[in-house]
Amino acid sequence: MEPFFHGIILALGLILPLGVQNIFVFNQGAAHKKLRKALPVIITASICDTLLIGMAVSGVSIIVFSFEWLRNMLFTIGILFLIYMGWGMWRTKTQGDQQPSRAFSTRQQITFAASVSLLNPHAIMDTIGVIGTSSLVYTGFGKWVFALACIGVSWIWFFSLAFAGGKIGLVDRNGHLLNRINQISAIIIWGMAIYMGYQFFIYSS
Question: Which residues of the chain have pLDDT under 50?
Fold first, then answer.
């Protein structure tokens, strides 16, 4: 049972802090009046986390990320994408019971969720450095129990986040709260882009 509880606690510690992925899932949950409309972003974010955790535990991600050109490409694309995403959220306006203009379509939800999950070098390195390294203490069945516990937390968390966003969206009849949440989200995302740029500079120097 130790690998199971270790995976749960570790995954909670990594996923609870406010990040781009969490912000996007929450925003789409708030933007859509029904949870099923936000299923594409929930499932995509969960699948991406499942992929990253699986790669980290199996050691594949360490090999992939050892290529400097790939790391530099991820940083560059990730920074530009975060700036673009923050601008889009800043411009989102909600009035009364109208649906926000940033209630993304199914294709947009999948594309953006995959992008904020897989084009975020900071998140990838956290997965490799924390989950991948922590899994080294286990072998065989125990290692995959640990991985499945991390993955389970991820799926439950994204469903809960979108559900909470939807509830806030229903309560916020005039749209003022959602507008403020979008602006705060944009500022946080721009801050993460700046931080990622700083990390890129450190790694490149």
Answer: 95-101
For residue range 102-115, what is the model confidence (pLDDT) as tens digits? 678 899 899 989 98
Rounded Cα distance between 169 and 94, Å, is 10
pTM: 0.79
CB 112 within 8 A of CB 24: yes
Contact residues for 99 (Cβ-Cβ < 8 A; gap 6+): 31, 32, 33
Q: In whole angstroms, what is the distance from residue 158 CA to residue 162 CA? A: 6
Structure letter (DSSP) for residue 172: -
* Cα 153 from Cα 150, distance rounded (Å): 5
How confident is the model over 37-81, as pLDDT tens digits?
999 999 999 999 999 899 888 877 666 667 777 777 877 887 887
What residues does each domain of the chain span? 2-204
| Both structure tokens of 141 | 């069945």
State which amino acid sits at residue 101: S
CA distance 185 to 188: 5
What's the rounded Cα separation, in Å, for the pair 49 and 113?
Answer: 11
CA distance 56 to 154: 15
Q: Name the residue among 123, 152, 140, 153 with its Cα closest to residue 56.
A: 123
